[in-house]
Specification:
Order of helices and strands: HEHEHEHEHHHEHEHEEEEHEH
Largest sheet: 6 strands, parallel
Low-confidence stretches: 1-16, 328-333
Structural class: alpha/beta
Number of strands: 11
Length: 333
Amino acid sequence: PASIKHSFIRFGISTSKLTEGVPGATSLPSVVPFKHTMSIIDGKAIAATIRGELKEEVDQVKGKVGRAPGLAFVLVGGRRDSATYVRMKKKACTEIGIEIFGAEVEDTITEEELLKIVQDLNANENVDGIIVQLPLPKHINETKILSAVSLEKDVDGFHPDNIGNLALKGREPLFVPCTPKGCLELLLRSDVQIEGANAVVIGRSNIVGLPMSLLLLERSATVTIVHSRTKDIPSYTKNADIVVAAVGRTEMVKGDWLKPGAVVIDVGMNSKDDPSSAKGYKLCGDCDFDECSKVASKITPVPGGVGPMTIAMLMSNTVASFKRKGKGVDVEW
């Protein structure tokens, strides 16, 4: 039948022997090449567009409200990676017009002292969002500190009420966690069909995997979560139209794990040795880009994919909080 022939043609399977021994059958070309097209989902460019949109919003509203949006950062200790992340976020704030608040303290700070800093920021009317940069020193209870952040200023989206409302049909969280929100925005702005799609999320963390699965489910995808205890993960990903990889394992997802034409969102940020690099290493994701890009129809690179979107969504959540506070002002929202 034509449908069977089409299937063989689509996947580049040799068809020369399909008609052997079949009376009256029409022969087919011996080899039909599989034509693969792939496009990069440029998170850096999309994030820049979003920052521009947010700047326009801030410029429009701050004159009516009487102030700029405010975002507070709490940085504990001298970890280079944490300091780098905070510096990148502050740079985005400056670009958009968000005022910066917060504190940088030594890692010898007590839990009670850190709680007092968070409580003071909760009470500051000029602060619309609070970021406690993780990880915290081992003597401090991260859950206790994060839970102390006001629900109305939880722009990271980690408050139990925000996650709970995300999970409940018909309920709206005040904020959605930034990385999964950024992944969804990449899909939407890349015109990826989510409704009715089979989506596999690799990873079940509270920060990415779980909220990502909820966001896809909300958009009427059929969602499967696979994780470290899942048997035969490729058997799930091979049937997926959308794959979101968020496990922190260098190039774990291979090309033969994917369905031809799948869309791949790579959340991972790992490093691997690279003698040709001046640093001696290069950044890479949870997916083997060289292999996966030969199978996928769309894929995010690492770096330059999800990373810039996480910061853009933090800015988006902060501006949303700012606008929510100014709803009484006579201005178009």
